[in-house]
Design brief:
The chain is α/β, with parallel strands linked by helices. The protein contains 7 helices and 5 strands. The protein folds into 2 domains: 135 residues, Rossmann fold; 62 residues.
Length: 255
């Protein structure tokens, strides 16, 4: 039997739209833009819930994950959140980490992928503790349930280090409207980036998304053109072979 650790009081530490099952189960599930919390917890997950934002939402997810060493697998499923691209952003966080100066998630396709309240150490703990299973855009409960069972069967046991506690900064009651806007985007009121930098970063990210979509459309168009050309070529070859066969038949009858 694999080793487990006692779960800290008050876990999950951060509030959110999620359901909680057996806290010693090794599997956490993120359903992105879909909501199927109860069904997934019933399938055996320790915690399951959607992820709508690529900043504060990811901060809460990492906080709740690394504060429970029993969690070893993170299944990313459900419909991708357009614009925020939270699924791919979460994968980028796991694969690339964050820039220590700007706190931006390296390689994220999301619009504003800043995790201002997370330390580099917290992200590294997340990377070491968890294994990511990508099922983005899959909403099939049966598929997800099977993957949960597979993870439980391969449970490596609790992570060696104890729970890592991160306290996310709360908004002040007397904050200005501009500060509120920043906080809703996952930035703290004392963010180091000015407003113009934030907008420029968002624009650059949108451009990257457009370039990626253009490449994808180009690939599809190239495939379609190749398929159409091949189809026409096949018809012409078939016509020529048929014509030759008819001519041979005609000459054989004359003889």
């Amino acid at each position: 039997m694999v080793e487990k650790k006692d779960v800290i009081d008050g876990w999950p530490l951060e509030t959110g739209d999620y359901a909680v099952g057996d806290a010693q189960c090794p599997v956490a599930v993120v359903t992105l833009g879909s909501k199927m919390n109860e069904e997934i917890v019933e399938a055996g997950a320790a915690i399951a819930g959607p992820l709508h934002t690529e900043n504060l939402g990811i901060e809460k997810l990492v906080t709740n994950t690394i504060s429970n060493p029993n969690l070893r697998f993170l299944i990313i499923c459900g419909s991708e959140v357009q614009g925020h691209i939270t699924g791919k952003t979460l994968e980028a966080l796991y694969e690339n980490g964050i820039d220590p100066d700007t706190k931006s998630i390296i390689g994220s396709p999301g619009a504003i992928p800043f995790v201002e309240n997370l330390t580099v150490e917290a992200v590294e703990r997340f990377q070491k503790q968890m294994s990511i299973i990508s099922m983005i855009n899959n909403e099939n409960i049966s598929d997800i349930s099977e993957k949960i069972k597979e993870c439980i069967a391969n449970d490596p046991g609790a992570y060696d280090d104890d729970a890592m506690i991160i306290h996310l900064n709360e908004k002040e009651e007397d904050e200005t409207e501009e500060e509120t806007e920043y906080d809703q985007l996952g930035m703290t009121s004392n963010a180091t980036m000015d407003k113009s930098s934030l907008y420029l970063t968002g624009i650059e990210t949108r451009i990257r998304l457009m370039q990626s979509e253009i490449k994808e459309i180009g690939s599809i168009e190239k495939f379609n053109n190749g398929y159409y050309s091949g189809k026409i070529e096949g018809i012409v070859i078939g016509f020529i072979i048929t014509l030759i066969f008819m001519l041979l038949t005609f000459w054989s009858l004359r003889l």
